[in-house]
Amino acid sequence: MKQHIDTAPIWDSYRQDCECPLCLLYAKVESGNVDYFLGESVMEPSQRVEVNQKGFCARHFKLMYDAGNRLGLALMTHTYMKETIKSLRENAQRARDAAAAEAVKPIFKRLGSQKGAGMSEIVGELRKVEDTCLLCDRIRDNMERYMYTILYMYKHEAEFPKLFEQSKGMCLHHYAQALEMAPKHLSGDALKRFVDTLTDIEIKNFDRLEGEIEWFTNKFDYRNQDKPWGNSRDAVKRSVNKLSHQVVDED
Ligand SMILES: [Zn+2]
Ligand SMILES: [Zn+2]
Q1: Residue 49 and residue 55: Cα distance in Å, rounded?
Q2: Per-residue model confidence as pLDDT tens digits over 75-122
Q3: 26 and 127, same domain (yes or no)
Q4: Which ligand is closest to the CA of 24, given by its number?
Q5: Which residue in 44, 102, 142, 171 has the most C-beta neighbors within 10 A?
């Protein structure tokens, strides 16, 4: 089955001057999903079931909290909390049992990493609950789709490779994702050209940004006080986002 390929959002973000066009797309996908989960999804029983199973990570709970729709968030959080209490109850006896077994262990079985080992299974399960996030899952699917579309466009849209080459590369996170997905969807000459071009622009633009953040630090020297900022005024934000991924939100 031929899938519909929506190239318009890719054209839009590649036409903007930015450090990572994928991060621009990410911001849109993320805010769209936050709106959806606070709005329509609250009325969708199947969505609620998924929320109850996976919950949200700290970043996405905070984004939903900051979005201000307290009733939508309250409805969702209430049922997710009920589900969480159910699994807490199920795990409670196992936590007590593990601690009781640990308490009677002879000292030689509680050396180094053995200490508390009996509790690690239950701790691992709780961490998993904390770490899983339905929004992260959705966004990851959407972003994979966009990355696939970029690879498709690189091969099939005559004007796209030129625009791609003029971009400032990607953040480290999306660069790794691009290198991971490229050999799955491109082959032969197209694969080689894509990776060659991307690595070239990546290094070129990391070098440029390194110069910009260096000038930012040099501006604190009184001798440079009156010299122009150039592109360095927001170099810290751009560098942080380039090295990681959407740490500081775009203005
Ligand atoms: Zn990015
Ligand atoms: Zn998340």
Answers
A1: 10
A2: 999 999 999 999 889 888 888 998 898 888 888 888 888 887 888 888
A3: yes
A4: 1
A5: 171
Indicate which ligand has the atom closest to the C-alpha of 54.
2
What's the whole-model pTM score? 0.85
**How is residue 149 written in tokens?**
């579309």
Question: Are 209 and 175 contained in the same domain?
Answer: yes
Ligand nearest to the CA of 64: 2
| Co-location of 155 and 215 in the same domain | yes
Residue 250 counted as domain residue: no
pLDDT at 221: 95
> Quick check: 1 pLDDT over 50?
no
Query: Tens digits of per-residue pLDDT, 200-244?
Result: 999 999 999 999 999 999 999 999 999 999 999 999 999 999 998
Interval between CA 81 and ligand 1 midpoint (Å): 33
* C-alpha–C-alpha distance, residues 23 and 225, integer Å: 33
Give distance in angstroms: CA of 54 to centre of ligand 2.
Answer: 10
Q: How far is the CA of 246 from the centre of ligand 1 (A)?
A: 7
Per-residue tokens: 232: 């360095």
Which protein residues have a CB closer than 5 Å to ligand 2 (ion)?
57, 60, 133, 135-136
Domain containing 209 equals 139-243
Please give the distance, rounded to the nearest whole angstrom, from the Cα atom of residue 8 to the centre of ligand 2.
26
**Under a CB-based contact definition with an 8 Å cutoff, are residues 157 and 7 in contact?**
yes
Domain termination site, one of 110, 135, 160: 135
Kindly state whether residues 68 and 54 are assigned to the same domain: yes
